[in-house]
Amino acid sequence: MAKKISCLGENIIPPAHVGVIMDGNGRWAKKRGLPRKFGHREGAKTFRTITRHAKAVGVDYITYYAFSTENWKRPKDEVESIMDLFEKYLDEVKDFIEENIRIRFIGDRSVLRPSLQEKMLDTEETSKDFDAMTLVLAINYGGRDEICHSVKTLAEKVKRGELDPKDITEEMIERNLYTEEIPPLDLVIRPSGEQRLSNFMIWQAAYAEFYYTNILWPDFKNADFDRAILDFCERNRRFGGV
Ligand code: IPE
Ligand code: IPE
Ligand code: MG
Question: φ and ψ at 192, to 5 degrees?
Fold first, then answer.
């Protein structure tokens, strides 16, 4: 891959992997007296803008938390409208394909609508060789569910006699996560004022830096993304060392 120069400046070394917990859509709509689904629609616009901008900033991977394993608890019509938005987005995804962005999905997709699953596979297949940036969408994703899934795969190997439990390593658990070859998170951005992970990439965020802002996701602008990146650049990461 050619050396990237960040639009924030030649000396800026952006985080390789940024995670975004897209939060605050519902409150954005409520403030305007609108149904929650209007907030999700507006949030989807922010997602498109920020993705293009992240590429200009020079991040290699951007992962968005779009729907959690816990979000099924929401009213049926809200869930339906979120799923409709995913499908609509995947229909329009060729815009991103033109931009050389590789798209990947993480989460348990087996319970999603078949039409959506098909589009997800298609999108991954069409974009697999693109290398300007990788966009990861976490749909029906839960960090605990992901670890559980990895552990089950290893347990099957133990049962078949192919693996001795005492030989299980962190790398093995990691290789069986949905993220496989995706690197750990460097920075997690959460808008909307909440300061929690809500089951987002709990394994991959072990040494991530966190950036919180009160701005609601639909109001989040490129300049807010830049602030998070520049803040990250000031941090001193030690990874347990000195
Ligand atoms: C995030 O916005 C979108 C999803 C979880 C799908 P919310 O819908 O959680 O918005 P708030 O937190 O209610 O404002
Ligand atoms: C996290 O937001 C999930 C996504 C952004 C997809 P939530 O709104 O579901 O999280 P909580 O319920 O406030 O923790
Ligand atoms: Mg929320």
Answer: 85, -5
| Beta carbons of 139 and 111 less than 8 angstroms apart | no
For the stretch 236-239, contacts whose Cβ atoms lie closer than 8 Å and that sit 24 or more positions apart, written own/partner, are: 237/207, 237/209, 239/207
Interatomic CA distance for residues 12 and 230, integer angstroms: 8
In ligand 1, the atom with minimum distance to the C-alpha of 82 is: 6
Question: What length does the chain have?
Answer: 242
Contact (CB, 8 A) for 205 and 19: yes
Q: Please identify which residue in the block is written with the tokens 């997690």.
A: 188
pLDDT-derived band at 176, boundaries 50, 70, 90: very high
Across all residues in the chain, what is the average pLDDT?
96
Number of alpha carbons in the 13 Å side-chain half-sphere of residue 76: 0
Domain ranges for the chain, please list them. 12-17+27-38+53-91+98-141, 143-183
Which tokens in the block code for residue 89?
């987005």
Instruction: Determine which residue's CA is closest to atom 9 belonging to ligand 2.
Output: 71
For the segment 179-194, the average pLDDT, to the nearest whole number, is 97
Amino acid occupying residue 229: I
Tell whether the model's pLDDT for residue 226 goes beyond 60: yes
Reported confidence tier of residue 98, pLDDT bands at 50, 70, 90: confident
Sign for the pseudo-dihedral over CA of 142, 143, 148, 154: positive
Residue 68 CA: nearest ligand 1 atom is 5
Q: What is the pTM of this model?
A: 0.96
Q: What CATH number is given for 12-17+27-38+53-91+98-141 in this structure?
A: 3.40.1180.10
Say if residue 203 carries a ligand binding annotation.
no
* Residue 82 contacts residue 67 (beta carbons within 8 Å): yes
